Every structure is written in structure tokens, then in C-alpha cells.
Amino acid sequence: MTKPGLLIVFSGPSGAGKDTVLKRFLDENPDCALSVSATTRAPREGEVDGENYFFITRERFGELTAMGEMLEYAYYNGNYYGTPKDMVEEQRARGKNVILEIEVQGALKIKEMGIDAVFIFLMPPSWKTLKQRLANRNTDSPWNVAERLNIAVTEMESAHLYDYIVVNDDLDACTAQMKAVVAAAQCRAEYCRELVEEVLRDAQTIHVSDN
Amino acid sequence: MTKPGLLIVFSGPSGAGKDTVLKRFLDENPDCALSVSATTRAPREGEVDGENYFFITRERFGELTAMGEMLEYAYYNGNYYGTPKDMVEEQRARGKNVILEIEVQGALKIKEMGIDAVFIFLMPPSWKTLKQRLANRNTDSPWNVAERLNIAVTEMESAHLYDYIVVNDDLDACTAQMKAVVAAAQCRAEYCRELVEEVLRDAQTIHVSDN
Fold it and tell me: What's the predicted TM-score (pTM) here?
């Protein structure tokens, strides 16, 4: 029987390098996969249903949330975005460790729900680095950068609520930390309960003096 | 400033391979060190004070326990054995991750005391393997093997009280698991609090629009 995969919740402020870290991490760890979100927004050119997003109608989105079928969801810029439970569970049942890259608010909701997950927060190595990274993104206006920095502060104020903090200073070191956290999560005592129970069961049935 | 090392409590039944795993792990991880116990028993030939044990008198041992200076201690075969707090703290202050290889009872006492430590339990891959490993130790009489197996069952019944369970099936895989657990423990959110506080402090003092 395949051991079910972990649910990994991954957050961090804009500019911490979430996408870069995840890309590298997923390249090196084929037992992990990014969760695919559902959205009510229209597909952009080149986007594939079930790969970039599950593109669903507002009606369907409403049904899923009403039935408690969304792990978390958010309304952003006129559209709904959410994580369908069944998609995550189906991947985990096949032994994949599923990574949810979500905002702090969504992550804390999942934590409050008592869902068993590994919560990882990606930190920049310093405030200066975060500012520089955001300033170097030419896509953002100065106002936008200031706004992102304000949000970053709010998000980092919740970092201590996560299980683990990995620091994106050096990309190699950071992905190695992620890998260690995921490997260690698979060694958590509750995750290994079945093996312990099996050995103890055998201890009762296979008599000490048998050979 | 050096970050203080972790306290790692390591237990497992006789025959699980604690010494083999630890030897390999310590060879590969020079940032970790085994704690040196204090004992009231006389040194055996070749044993070095401060290396194999701290050899102390019964009076001194009594003083240290009375002053709460022992992290844990036990009476075994006519002698006392214990872990002196100051030795552990001195090593941790120098950044070493200190490993305490102790019995389940001592480990659970440390846990009850609320001491911040990483609790790792070493499991054999199966009951059959554990039996074989103990039977192959020619030093033990059959009665002794049976006794050790009974104790092993009692100990494994407490495995779920540890933070992590590592399985000694393949030595390479097992030491890799230990390494991941220690690396992940260094990423625990409470262990990284200082970095987060520093970044948030800088966010207040270095104004958003500064360059």
C-alpha cells in the first residue's frame, strides 16, 4: 500500500522568491507536486485547464465552497480562487506530497481547521534584500513596491505561526532546507504509527523463542 | 554570535542499532556531538575521564542531583549514571548539537520537564530483524535475549511519544533520515525567531522609500 503523501502549506512575502525556490525544489523532488487551484477567471492565452488552473464557473465554485469542498479560497480582483479538496486528496492518495502555495490568511485558515499539514514560511535573508528584489522587478510601479512591502511586513508578522521557516539566502541551501523539512515530516512519529503497530503486533504473534 | 546547538534525545530498543547509526551519523555530521554522562562506577581499563564518562564520587553525584544539575539520571547495576546539565549547555553554547543517547524512561522525564529538545526514536524495520540482531550477538545468553526483547516491546510502546521515528533498515537511509530531522529542527519557527524579529525591526527603521 502506498503511504499517503503529505500536505505542505507554503507561504512567504512577495519578493522572498517563492516561485524560484518551488521550481528548483519540484525539479529535484519528483515525489512532490504543486496543487492546482480552481478559479472562476477566464483562461489566459496558453493556460491549460487542470494544469495551470481548474477553470470553473461561479456557480460551480459556489457549490464547492457551500459543500465544504474547498480547503481554502479567496476573492481577488473580481474572481474567486480556491483549492479543491478532492484534487489534493487524490494526489496524496497516490503518495504525492502536495504543496499548496497560498497566502498567509488562507494558510492560517487551514491551520485553524486542524488539518494535518506541514506549514513552511519562506523568509528573505534581510529586509534590504527583500526591498532590492522587489525594486528590481521592473513590472511594479514604485507605489506597488511600497504596497507589497507593507503587506510583506504583515505576512512576516505571522511567520512564527508556521511550523518551519526556510531562508532564501542561497538557493541551494534553501532548497536543501525544504528537502530536509519534507523528509523530516515523513519521520514524524504520528506518520510512522503504522510501522510501530505492525512491529508490536508481530511481537505478540511471533513468540520470543521461535526462530 | 553562534546560534546555540540543539538538544537531541535519542532512544531505541536494544538491537535497533543505536551505536552503529550514531557512529555513522557523528562521522558525517561534525556539528553534532554525543553528550558525555557522569557515573559513579570506577573507570574500566582504557576509559578516559571526560571522554567515555565523567567519573565522579557518589557524594558529588548526590550533590548534583540535589541541586537539579542532572538533566536525567538512573541507577543501574549498583551505580548511578546521569547527564550533567552544565556539560550539555556548554557544548550547545558553542553551537554543537548535543545528542543524549538515553533510555526511554529518562527521555520521557526530560519531555515531562518541558525541556526544549528533539526526541528521536530508532525503530528496527521489523520484529523479525530485531530478534535476529539480538540472537546474533553472541555475548547474550538466550535468557538475556528474551529479556531484552520484552524490554524492547515496552520501549516501542512509547515510540509515539517521541517527535520523530527513524527506521534502521538500511544504514545510509537511516543516517540520511537523522540528518534531515536535525536540519529540519534547525528550521523550526521558534528556532528562527531572531531572524524574523531582525527583519521586522529593519522594516521599521529602514524606510520603504530609502534606497
Answer: 0.87
